[in-house]
Design brief:
Distance between the termini: 23 Å
Number of strands: 17
Shape: flat
Largest sheet: 6 strands, mixed
Helix content: 25-40%
Radius of gyration: 26 Å
Strand content: 15-25%
Structural class: alpha+beta
Number of domains: 3
CATH architecture of the largest domain: Sandwich
Amino acid sequence: MLPYPRRPITAPIDRTDAAVRRGDDARVDVVVRTRKVGHFFPGGTVDAFEVWLELQATDEKGQVLFWSGKVEDDGKGPVEPGAHFYRSLQIDGHGNPINKRNAWATRSVVYVHLIPPGAADTAHFRLHISENAGDKITLHAKLNYRKFSWFNTHFSFAGVEAEKAAQGKPSAASNASATAATTTPDYDDRKWAFNGDTSSVSGNLKTIPDLPITVVAEDTKTLRVLPRTALPPQPKTVTTKEDWTRWNDYGIGLFLQGDLKAAAAAFEKITEADPQNPDGWTNIGRTLLQEGDTAGARKVLEKSLAINPQLGRTNYFYARALKEDGDYDGAAAHLQIVLAQFPRDRVVRNELGRVRFLQKRYADAVKEFERTLSIDPEDLQAHYNLMLCYNGLGDDAKANEHKARYLRFKADESAQAITGPYRQTHPEDNNERQAIHEHVSVALAPGKQLSQKPKPTAARLTLPAATPSGKD
């Protein structure tokens, strides 16, 4: 057992007969996991299209009790700004969002929210159970995809500068003067109206299209609703050997947010369900290592190595623990086990190079970092550490060469200052920027009912529900 308090949780919903009380709030966690995807999700031009998570709660009377990720205009308009998005939100030098495929003007990033390959994301929603809710609440989660954002589609087909649209048709000279004052390669301050003439747009369609929304994955789960006077529902978890990946992915999502205590508690469920599964012990060790508890990390990682001594990820994290404790030879030996299986892993190469540097074996360290650059010539850590290694070798010329490349490729941290005013005027995006955040429902009309209830589908998303007090 792990020596820290647990956040009360009821999960998985479909195995615990989960219940909520009228008048209470409950946190619902939705896990989106990537499977057999060899790249970040989504991939491609993540500033251009829309991928978001939608969660809707309805009762047996057809009342909509909660809706996050709603699309305006009956599914044809923009996505509500408080949705949980998977994208890169970039802004220009004046804090305008990059939303017209004008990536050259990007000067800072508000947030980048993508799921690494073989990993997961855990989204949090705050559900209020109204007094007039029925006896059952159906949660319907959907992962949605639209090829281009609503704004970009309307801009491309019918975008007209709002000021010019209001003034009529000014002269060519005044057009050029106004444009020069409001847009440069660094920013675009123009405001847009979408009432332009579409008769001359390229393509056969001479109107603004309603791009389809594709449901990538979806799932439904049901909650029982208790009277306000009932006793509070007690937290309950069910762990089965077959569900280990659900707990693992839930924990990975929490870990990537920095919620290390909750992540470790989720990983412990794997060890309870199947003590011979090395992944549970490995990921507990990973969280302890992140917290700085190297002794605790080594203890649980050794349990994983006893099950599978060749498991690459366990050897990697065990090597990191050994390195932190000053056992450089031991760390190098375990990293060599990983590299024998994955010789082109840049992260492991860099870690071994760092160990050699700490041993003051600068020439050996250089070899490892050069191998990293043979895989990725822009690897930031490799250039930084090569700068240090060549300083140790007394080669100032090469040290300065890698220093220049490091400064060339590193992020401009001062550019984050540009995001301040934007985040003040866009609270939903500022919320999404936070590592751990919750989503609430859009405003719903009293007694709003669905025209058609969502159809249950095969389970693809895990929905652990938390009480109000609460592989990679």
